[in-house]
Amino acid sequence: MVMAEDNALLREGLILLMTSAGHEVAGVAATGPEVLPLLLEHRPDIAILDVRMPPGFRDEGLRAALEARKELPELPVLVLSQYVEETYAAELLAGGARGVGYLLKDRIGRVDEFLDALERVAAGGTALDPEVVTELMARRRDDPLDALTPREREVLELMAQGLDNATIATSLVITERSVHKHIGNVFAKLGLPPSDSGHRRVLAVLAYLNA
User: Fold this and answer.
1) pLDDT tens-place string over residues 131-173
2) Exposed, middle or buried: residue 107 (CB in 10 Å: 0-12, 13-18, 19+)?
3) How many whole angstroms separate alpha carbon 162 and alpha carbon 182?
4) pTM of the model
5) Confidence band, pLDDT 50/70/90 cuts, at residue 11
6) How confident is the model at residue 198 (pLDDT cuts 50, 70, 90)?
7) How far is CA 22 from the centre of its chain?
8) Closest to 28 (Cα-Cα) out of 40, 43, 17, 12
9) Which residue has the higher pLDDT, 145 or 99?
10) Which residue ranges does the record assign to the HTH luxR-type domain (predicted)?
């Protein structure tokens, strides 16, 4: 992996956590301009990037992620942020939900959850902080998702966080069969035909976040 984080203490902590978990840190960047060259040089299995980095502390890390995905479309990216950056999150997700994660830094302290999210993103899945999803959805009005029932929206929100059917069932205290039925209804209402079965979950998440 390639990591970009300007806070030295957090950076060293992340490196220790990653190596202890059996991952290889191939490159580390402390400023925005360092990120893209590192990603293009190492072409890592995943990039872990802070949003705001020197010199401007605005969106250097995210801009590097967006540029890298133009050059390496399949590059999984896990973005870390101190706060929910709605515009930045939406821009990253607009490029496709495959292999994308956006977590608040507070989540790092929940080591098992963080490592699970990391592996999910590296495998091409999604991992979105619940607070990120809530903030993004707060500004959606009159979108195609209005046809969904409250339960279907709950299921789709958990899908957006990258959870599988079994975990969704546990979270909502319903059966996996019910989850499967709700997801089928979501696909139908969003106009995602069976021929897209390999990608419908990702397409549904995109519709949810970018409608």
Assistant:
1) 777 766 565 555 667 788 889 989 988 888 888 899 999 999 9
2) middle
3) 16
4) 0.67
5) very high
6) very low
7) 22
8) 12
9) 99
10) 141-211
Q: Name the average pLDDT for the chain.
A: 84
Q: Give the pLDDT of residue 67.
A: 85
Q: Which H, E and C letters describe the chain, residue by residue?
A: CEEECCCHHHHHHHHHHHHHCCCCCCEEECCHHHHHHHHHHHCCCCEEEECCCCCCCCCHHHHHHHHHHHHCCCCCEEEEECCCCHHHHHHHHHCCCCCEEEEEHHHHHCHHHHHHHHHHHHCCCEEECHHHHHHHHHCCCCCHHHHCCHHHHHHHHHHHCCCCHHHHHHHHCCCHHHHHHHHHHHHHHCCCCHHHCCCHHHHHHHHHHHC
100, 103, 122, 125: which is closest to 113 by C-alpha? Answer: 103
Residue with tokens 């929940």: 110
Q: Print burial letters for 152-177: b (CB count within 10 Å at least 16), e (below 16).
A: bbbbbbbbbbbbebeebbeeeebeee
The Cα 195–Cα 92 span in angstroms is 27
Kindly report the backbone phi and psi dihedral angles of residue 101, in degrees, each rounded to the nearest multiple of 5, phi listed first: -135, 145
CA 127 vs. chain centroid, Å, equals 4
